[in-house]
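B., you asked whether I could sanity-check this one before it goes into the benchmark set. Here's the sequence:
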Amino acid sequence: PINRDDIDWNTGDVTILGEKGGRYRVIYLDEVARYHLRKYVESRKDENEALFVWERSPHNRLNKTGIRASLKTIAGRAGLKCRVYPHKMRKTLGMQLKNQGVDIGDIQEILGHSNPNVTSRYYAESTPDTLRDVRRRAAA
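And here's what the prediction gave me:
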């Protein structure tokens, strides 16, 4: 669980406990994420230390089910037709990084994979678009 005080608002660093392996690691929030997260936190009227809480009283910490339900609601408002869930967001980040040409080692570190084989299995495969992009950058 992440609490409001776990965020370094200057750097965007957040220390989290990973579900798999039980290791602590740091994730990074960019300026846009910090801006919106700060607006959310400042809009709250409760005193709960949790970063995300239920909208209605007694404003308890959101659990996994609540986070999934919130994402589903947000996806519906955005008109998305596909299923949206926390791990899909993580996989999407990995694919975006891969498609932007980020080094596989950096993707491994960002996603918190302890074993590089896991990262390679999902994000090291080349597609025609990534191969074209590599050739284009090499020729420049």
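One thing to flag: The longest strand covers residues 13-17. Otherwise nothing jumped out at me.
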